[in-house]
Amino acid sequence: MAHNKEISPGGARALSAYVKLLRASETAHSQAVQPLAEHGLTPSQFAVLEALYHLGPLCLSDLARKILKTSGNLTMVVDNLEKCGLAHRVKGEKDRRFFTVDLTADGRKLIAKIFPSHVAEIRKIMSRLTKKEQELLAALCKKLGKTGKAILS
């Protein structure tokens, strides 16, 4: 690892901000998903249930984009949700090779039950920041998340 003298002030500042962003994200995420284990769900399983609950049936590639996972990773998540009776694949009417993923009645009931407490947990975590700070954080994260050429100052 390089010594601080070998890093420019801009590099040190960027590195410091990046590490703080990752630590804050990991801390908030682990606190938010901890209660999901009580329902036997992994964070990815919850993300699938939540996306299907709010958006309706989705093909695997759209679902992967919504929850920021690859289709390959998602196949196992959906398989496990099917085994638990919480989601199912629906074959396309025109093309039987195409399918969407949808909630079962049990999956809909479970996500409807736990989603409000999940939102409450996130609200509790984010309450460390004022309303203005939350809005600023959201705007900064949106700006940081946009793709394109980096601007160095």
Describe this structure as you would to a colleague:
There is one protein chain. The protein is mainly α and 153 residues long. It has six helices and three strands. The chain has a three-stranded antiparallel beta sheet with strand order 1-3-2. Strand 2 (87-91) and strand 3 form a beta hairpin. Helix 1 crosses helix 5 and helix 2 (43-55) crosses helix 5.
Task: Please give a quick description of this structure.
The chain is mainly α and 153 residues long. The chain has a domain of 104 residues: Orthogonal Bundle (Arc Repressor Mutant, subunit A), CATH 1.10.10.10. Helix 1 packs across helix 5.
Low-pLDDT windows of residues: 149-153
What is the typical, i.e. mean, pLDDT? Answer: 89
Q: Strand-residue fraction?
A: 5-15%
The CATH architecture classification of the domain at 33-136 is Orthogonal Bundle
Keywords:
about 150 residues, mainly alpha, Arc Repressor Mutant, subunit A, three-stranded antiparallel sheet, globular, disordered C terminus
Topology:
Layout: H1 9-33, H2 43-55, E1 58-59, H3 60-67, H4 71-83, E2 87-91, E3 99-103, H5 105-126, H6 131-145
Antiparallel strand pairs: 1-3, 2-3
Helix pairs in contact: 1-5, 2-5
